[in-house]
Each structure stands twice: as C-alpha cells, then as structure tokens.
Automatic annotation (TrEMBL):
Residues 67-121 form the Translation elongation factor P/YeiP central domain. It is found in: Cytoplasm. It comes from Paenibacillus septentrionalis. This is Elongation factor P. GO terms for molecular function: translation elongation factor activity. Keywords: Cytoplasm, Elongation factor, Protein biosynthesis. The gene is efp. It comes from the Bacteria.
Length: 185
C-alpha cells in the first residue's frame, strides 16, 4: 500500500482494478476544507489518460510492474512473436497492442516488455532506432531560407520529415517517442 501523499512521477498504482502510472500530481491545501491530491494518470492497459482526485492520506495498492528484455522475432498476419531472452519462451502480441511501436520494430530487435501479474501490458522501445530510407524525393536546392525538409519513408513504413540532403538507402536515427528524425546514423 502507498499513500497518495507519497506520489512520484512514474509510480504505478492500482485503482478500481486498473493499473495506472502517475504522469503528474499536485498537492492542494485549500483555505477551507480538507487537503487533496489532484493527479493525471495513464491507464497501462488501454493507454487512456484520466484525471483523478484523492483525499490526502488515502492509500492505494502499488502495482509492481515487471520489465524483461525480449527479442522481436517475426510477424504472421496481425500477430507479432517475441522471445524472452532468459527463458526462451515465445509469446505473441496483436497489432492493437503494438500500434505505435510497429513504426519502429524490426526483426531481431531487442525491446523491454512490461507485465503485471503475468498480463503483458506492452513494450518499451529504445529512445532511438536506426532505420533505412526506402523512398524519398531528391532534394532540390534553392527557394529555401533555412531548415527545409521533405518526406522520407523508412523500412518499417513510417513517414518522417527529413532534411533535403537525405537520400534513399541512408540509415537514419529516429526518435521513437515522437517519430522524428534525429540525424544520420
């Protein structure tokens, strides 16, 4: 059990049978009435963000999230197969569970998987990945003040805005949190 007075960003808690991570919190002590904690929580099962208010001193169950390193093996239809690097157990996740992550996932890539009491909640990608450009228009010089960009399609199917000097077959470093170009690899 954990008191809402001890909230920290990134803490995982269980509220009404759902698992949440604390994104933001604020302790409020009004001049009249009891103190309370206003919080912004992200549901780890469906990704929704909710705002909840708790009475000061209220206790909640702490959710112990287990993180393990796994390797992405292959896809078959809408199912994606992973292997635990320690036990060599294989399991599958669906397209709905990996919607954003599929933009960056390549075969044989190592990622971390989060689970709660055996239930897989999702995967955590590294902050950046290297992806090869498979399609882009040639850059045209002129008529640009500064920072001109063009669209490039990378090997996973993601379209990224890149500088004009990027060509097909270039390997780029892409930020997995925002899906943006960082640099050439």
């Amino acid at each position: 059990m954990i008191s809402v007075n001890d909230f920290k960003t990134g803490l995982t808690i269980e509220v009404d049978g759902d698992i949440f991570t604390v994104l933001e919190f604020q302790h409020v002590k009004p001049g009249k009435g009891a103190a309370f904690v206003r919080s912004k929580l992200k549901n780890l099962r469906n990704g929704n963000t909710v705002e909840k208010t708790f009475r000061a001193g209220e206790t909640l169950s702490r959710a112990m999230i287990e993180n393990r390193e796994v390797q992405y093996l292959y896809s078959a239809g809408d199912e994606y197969t992973f292997m635990d690097n320690e036990t060599y157990d294989q399991f599958t996740l669906t397209r709905e569970q990996l919607e954003w992550e599929l933009n960056f996932l390549k075969e044989n890539m190592n990622v971390n998987i989060s689970s709660y009491q055996g239930e897989i909640l999702g995967i955590q990608l590294p902050n950046s990945v290297e992806l090869k450009v498979i399609e882009t228009e040639p850059g045209v010089k002129g008529n640009t003040a500064q920072g001109a960009t063009k669209s490039a399609k990378v090997e996973t199917g993601l379209n990224v805005q890149v500088p004009l000097f990027i060509n097909e077959e270039d390997v780029l470093l892409i930020d997995t949190r925002e899906g943006k170009y960082i640099s050439r690899a």
